[in-house]
């Protein structure tokens, strides 16, 4: 038995053009469903509480940015272009490894009904990446801890 017969049918049953059209329809359906599932991730589906909640965040800087420990000062206002701001409370440098630098930030985080906190577009949970960009420097690293903080 031939794979494609004289009439252009696969195994003598299905037309090749119909088979290609069916495969294309299946691919489009899979891509559409996949993109819809991916777009409906955690950030889009959470319900936010109306008020912001103050938090202290320990941000461990990436090692190549450890020189910023000499530039960042307590009291510096840091944030992004959208006006989301935080204030630097302190800088800690590991005695054994001076390239290991933590910046302690005070900020107002949006809280979700599930207890997830966000700062701008960043999820605030241990291990999550975070970046704040004032005009003078860029703080980029990962969140080590998030704790409740008193208001201003």
Throw out a few tags for this protein.
single chain, 152 residues, alpha+beta, 2 domains, 8-stranded antiparallel beta sheet, two-stranded antiparallel ribbon, 2 helices, 41% strand, elongated
Question: What does this protein look like?
Answer:
By secondary structure, the protein is of the alpha+beta class. The chain has two domains: 9-39; 47-148. Helices cover 18% and strands 41% of the residues. The chain has two helices and ten strands. It has helices spanning 16-39, 42-45, and strands at residues 9-10, 14-15, 48-61, 77-79, 85-93, 101-112, 117-119, 122-124, 129-132, 139-148. Strands 3, 4, 5, 6, 7, 8, 9 and 10 form an eight-stranded antiparallel sheet that branches. A two-stranded antiparallel ribbon has the order 1-2. A hairpin with a 4-residue loop joins strand 6 (101-112) and strand 7. The longest helix has 24 residues, at 16-39. The chain is elongated. The N and C termini lie far apart (81 Å). The mean pLDDT is 76.
């Amino acid at each position: 038995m031939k794979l494609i017969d004289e009439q252009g049918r696969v195994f003598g049953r299905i037309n090749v053009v119909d088979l290609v059209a069916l495969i294309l329809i299946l691919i489009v359906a899979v891509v559409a469903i996949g993109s819809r599932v991916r777009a409906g991730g955690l950030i889009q589906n959470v319900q936010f509480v109306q008020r912001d909640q103050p938090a202290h965040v320990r941000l461990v800087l990436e090692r190549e940015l450890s020189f910023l420990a000499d530039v960042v000062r307590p009291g510096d206002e840091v944030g992004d272009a959208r006006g989301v701001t935080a204030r630097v409370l302190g800088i800690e440098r590991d005695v054994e490894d001076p390239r290991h630098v933590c910046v302690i930030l005070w900020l107002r985080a949006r809280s979700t009904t599930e207890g997830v906190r966000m700062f701008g577009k960043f999820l605030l949970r241990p291990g999550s990446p975070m970046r704040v960009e004032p005009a003078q420097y860029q703080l980029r690293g990962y969140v080590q801890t998030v704790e409740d903080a008193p208001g201003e």
